[in-house]
Amino acid sequence: MVEFFKHLGFQATVYQEKLLRDKSQFILARWSRQSGKSLAMAVAVLFNALSRRGFRAAIVAPSKRQSLKMVDKISRLLSRLGRDVLEGPPRKGRLAFRNGSVIEALPNNPDTVRGETLNVVVLDEFAYIEHDKELYDAIIFALSTTNGSFYGTSTPGSTDTLFYRMATNDEQFADFSRHHVSYKDALKPNGPIDPEFLEKIRRQYQTDPGRWKREMEADFADDEDAYLPLQLIESCVTEGPETFTKDDVISGRLARIGKFFVGSDLAPKIDLSAVAVAEKIGRDVYLVHETAFPPGTAFSVVTGYLNLLNQRLKTVSRIYIDQTGVGEFFVQDAYKSGLKNAQGIFLSLSKKQEIMDYFKRKMQDGHLHFPRDPELMNEMSAERFQLSKTGQLQFSHVSGTHDDRLWAFALAVYASRLDTPTYHPVAAVNTHPSPRNLMPQLPRSLWKI
Length: 449
Ligand SMILES: Nc1ncnc2c1ncn2[C@@H]1O[C@H](COP(=O)(O)OP(=O)(O)OP(=O)(O)O)[C@@H](O)[C@H]1O
Ligand SMILES: [Mg+2]
Fold this sequence. Notes:
Layout: H1 2-7, H2 14-21, E1 26-31, H3 37-51, E2 56-60, H4 64-81, E3 94-96, E4 102-105, H5 110-114, E5 120-124, H6 132-144, E6 149-154, H7 162-168, E7 176-181, H8 195-204, H9 209-215, H10 230-235, H11 246-251, E8 256-265, E9 273-281, E10 284-293, H12 299-312, E11 313-322, H13 328-336, E12 342-345, H14 349-364, E13 368-369, H15 374-381, E14 383-387, E15 393-397, H16 404-415, H17 425-429, H18 435-438
Parallel strand pairs: 1-6, 1-7, 2-4, 2-5, 5-6, 8-11, 10-13, 11-12
Antiparallel strand pairs: 3-4, 8-9, 9-10, 14-15
Bound molecules: adenosine-5'-triphosphate and magnesium ion (MG).
């Protein structure tokens, strides 16, 4: 397989070679960022597909987009071989070979996986895959008839993951072969990590040692002074009503009915201005839209955008605008421009605490939901707090990061608090509450699958 790696134009690193030579049935690779996890997996899967007849491999990643990208990577490797081995043209997310082998990107859906018979399953970025336990059960089922093998590769994430248990629990996962690679092992010339890239990341993570430890040293870390622990953030990533983009708003494609609340964090000069829209359904609040405007964007542009939201969404109940840096006049102006539901909020220390406390409580109660948006989630985990002398919490964020999206979202959530929930009758008799069956009357097209 190492020869094959070379054949494709790469020199395998020492740790990639070790992984590729590993004959264990269950393999866990806890490797640093950019160390070559995905490439090693791509090569391993491709080698098997070519050298065995009727070999079936599946790749699952945190999102379908990521698993499609991985299959695309394999397809590009294949073109380096210069041999025509595929049965017909490559399809998106599926490579069928003349020898009967198939490599396919599967969605993170236990039912789909359970229906397959597979020789190998790769979980890329395993620690960031939702419903990991259910998915793993289905994988074991799909591998059972072939006695197939399992690869899980990732940088460490929260300690509330199956990846964590597999990496640390020697009894339950005794048959796992574990590989650990820190950035130190993967620096040039021993690996693909560029010293320049490393320095950039080092500066970015300077005040976030937890993240550095997880992503670069590939070790698990507790983040003690983080206001929103990673585990809590992860627990709020849920499917919800369909999200929409800035383009949808501007092009006029968007027309939605519901109860919407908007938060806007305005930045006078250096930072971004951000706008978030939350939809409230019963007691649950879902982030359905978030967008940022580049530094220096005129406030009138943001006001215009808020007016558009008011037109497209029936009904935006309330808009909270952070007026701390821009002054009251902006909000008065916004009000005059037609934003009758806008209200300025001055973010004093105590107001900030009230808003963040409310936000965190909603998260802890399981009533706050957002899609897997790495940028937003990074902002959340980079939010720090410190007790001030007066006993109040002082919020800050890790240098090199923003927190505008987080504050826009928190303002939208705070705006939704005054609304008394109306219960859907079905919810009251439902024994398995989940966002989906709380609202059976919603068309399926509104849901992200
Ligand atoms: N043995 C190698 N020789 C040369 N380049 C390599 C090697 N392994 C990986 N690379 C290159 O290094 C870069 C990172 O590789 P890859 O995407 O596989 O890493 P990763 O660990 O999956 O990264 P991420 O943490 O971003 O998902 C890619 O450009 C890849 O082509
Ligand atoms: Mg990768």
